[in-house]
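Students often ask why inverse folding is considered easier than folding. One informal answer: many sequences map to the same fold, so there is more than one right answer. In these notes we will look at a single instance of the problem. The structure comes first.
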């Protein structure tokens, strides 16, 4: 079935600061790298590029498809020795915050100190995703990617060992997805458009949402509001520099029916260094709404649906009842179109918001749909993979990333004259 990581509770967010809103804008000649004044010596740039690898997954969960991974260096907050480099962490532009599997941390001999609320109870989180719910404590860590560090930020420990409090009934009835095999990864690096994974919806004074809990010594857990500073945080947003967004840059695939692996770059910052300058022409920017969505109209449909560009989803994910669904066990839940490759198109536009500050033409994307039954066996990177029968939204998943840079602009952060949240390509 389609592998998705988009959090379902993200729709409960309230708006952040001024967003790049309104309809899509196609910018030409507006961006470039920031240079220093003539004759002024500038400090050396911070190394801001991490390697992304698409392969068949970690040793504990092989057979992954279209999963982009990065290695994350994590330390107990404030320590320079109690650290480990965790490989095969999923790069996910559709969620927010770092989540690491407890057994992976234990194997690396790293223990992260958990957060407590004002009553001394351990703060635990129930994070809802399309494929299930995570559960585990919120801990503090220093997180390093390339040469950038987010110091003392909240991360979630996915309690696959069930060594902490059990999730309460209010967390929901969906399956827990805490294991390496659930994610085909040792963790999830959520680096989408928002700073925290819930925002003011979980920090206000109203009835607490079933997201953050205070768990006492007897294992009783009660939903509670949690300050923004205590919520699981997007590490890149928390960097000292290069913290206004990022670029996911993947090469085109060599074989339409699958490559053994693929390797690209995760570049931090937008228009902050020479290597992350935005193009001077031909850039499409899509302003996101308070849920992190823009709008997509698929294949001439009469109405648009919410959409996002999501590296944590391994396919193009949308509803199309005219497409045949695969019957082979290996590709259950995906589309197997006749006469593949089948070309489809969709129109992307920014989210419609009352505070629209830009306007411009919509952008049409054409993309091929392949028949997975023709894919090369045991490959890891596939273009044209699609699924999502019955979906009410559109996700431009990992196939969209091959052969084009994708830009993620963070909420409340400026990129030249614009402020996020936005997506670009």
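Output (designed amino acids):
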């Amino acid at each position: 079935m389609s592998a998705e990581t988009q959090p379902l509770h993200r729709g409960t967010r309230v708006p952040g600061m001024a967003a790049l809103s309104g309809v899509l804008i196609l910018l030409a000649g507006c961006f470039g790298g920031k240079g220093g004044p003539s004759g002024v010596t500038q400090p050396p740039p911070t190394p801001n590029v991490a390697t992304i690898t698409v392969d068949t997954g970690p040793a504990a969960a092989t057979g992954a498809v279209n999963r982009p991974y990065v290695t994350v260096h994590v330390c107990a907050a404030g320590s320079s020795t109690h650290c480990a480099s965790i490989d095969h962490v999923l790069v996910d532009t559709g969620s927010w915050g770092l989540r690491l599997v407890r057994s992976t941390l234990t194997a690396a001999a790293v223990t992260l100190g958990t957060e407590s609320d004002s009553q001394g109870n351990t703060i635990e989180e129930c994070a809802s995703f399309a494929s299930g719910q995570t559960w585990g404590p919120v801990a503090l860590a220093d997180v390093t990617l390339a040469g950038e560090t987010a110091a003392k930020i909240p991360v979630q420990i996915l309690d696959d060992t069930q060594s902490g409090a059990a999730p309460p009934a209010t967390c929901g009835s969906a399956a827990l997805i805490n294991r390496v095999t659930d994610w085909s990864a040792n963790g999830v690096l959520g680096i989408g458009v928002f700073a925290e994974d819930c925002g003011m919806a979980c920090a206000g004074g109203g009835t607490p949402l079933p997201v953050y809990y205070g768990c006492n010594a007897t294992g009783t857990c009660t939903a509670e509001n949690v300050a923004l500073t205590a919520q699981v945080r997007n590490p890149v947003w928390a960097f000292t520099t290069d913290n206004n967004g990022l670029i996911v840059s993947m090469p085109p695939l060599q074989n339409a029916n699958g490559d053994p692996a693929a390797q690209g770059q995760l570049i931090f910052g937008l228009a902050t260094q020479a290597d992350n300058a935005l193009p001077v022409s031909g850039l499409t920017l899509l302003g996101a709404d308070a849920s992190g969505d823009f709008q997509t109209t698929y294949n001439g449909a009469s109405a648009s649906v919410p959409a996002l560009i999501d590296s944590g989803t391994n396919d193009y994910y949308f509803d199309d009842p005219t497409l045949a669904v695969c019957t082979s066990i290996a590709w259950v839940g995906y589309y197997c179109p006749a006469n593949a490759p089948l070309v489809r198109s969709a129109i992307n536009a920014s989210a419609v918001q009352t505070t629209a500050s830009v306007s411009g033409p919509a952008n049409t994307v054409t993309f091929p749909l392949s028949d997975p039954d023709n894919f090369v066996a045991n490959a890891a990177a596939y273009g044209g993979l699609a699924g999502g029968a019955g979906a009410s939204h559109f996700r431009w998943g990992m196939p969209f990333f091959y052969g084009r840079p994708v830009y993620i602009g963070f909420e409340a952060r400026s990129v030249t004259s614009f402020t996020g949240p936005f997506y670009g390509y």
